[in-house]
Amino acid sequence: MVHILVTPPVQVQELRGLERRLKSQYPLREALVIPGREDVMDEESSADKESLVLACCQAAAQWLTDTLKDGDTLAVPWGRVASYVAGQLTPTSGVRRLLTVPIVGVTGVITHPFEANTIAARIADVLGGQSLLLAAPAVVTPAAYEVFTQIPLVERVLDQARRADVVITPIAAADPQTSTVVRQGLASPEEISYVMERGAVGEIASFWWFDCMGRLVEIPNARPIGLGLHGLGDIVRDDRMVMAIVAASRARIAPLRVALEQELVNALVTDHITALELLKD
After folding, report:
1. Which residues, 6 or more positions from 156, have their beta carbon under 8 angstroms from its beta carbon?
2. Which of 22, 47, 168, 169 has the fewest beta carbons closer than 10 A?
């Protein structure tokens, strides 16, 4: 089945202008804007909304193909956005010795196309690189966290993720009704409500919540194993690339704005409706 996405006519010059304005208003190294649609911004789900997200991921995939250099390390989360990006990549002879690494552990015992390990392997296979396996659960207790992160196999992958040249990530609103980690059974709605009561406004890099100042807000007795919020911040401060891929969702604009202002990310792929909202005073 093929779904044709129809978007309002937007001049290329207008899109490039939005990119320049985003880079002027926020501390962004890169900005890429595609045509969007106002009517899908508040929908919970629809074929058109999903097609627009897919188009945004296709733009991100093309950017990766054009930008990744020999010997680069690309770090990826779990979820549909990263899976869509992997699915839109095309083989290229321009990248050699690419290393792909997951930024979070596994969510279950059954292989799933949305798992970070799976996505890392898919990208390496398409682009002719090598992928690392993060052999650890996505979420453990604080006591187990100390044990797992000191295992040499796990420690090596986490260290490589911290040294990534490019990281891609979705950003979502903190919401117990829509949270992917709730749907995956990794957290309860009550736990999401708990972090929201303590100021959490958004979720980034698969399983890390942040407040309006970009500070980490944690669920009690649960520690995700992966790159984490501090790891993202270190990559941005080191002038490497953390690219947010966000489109077709009004609920994601507020946490995206915080992530941009607080420099949790320094690159963005989005649609022009989201870009216009981000540029409002």
Report:
1. 132
2. 47
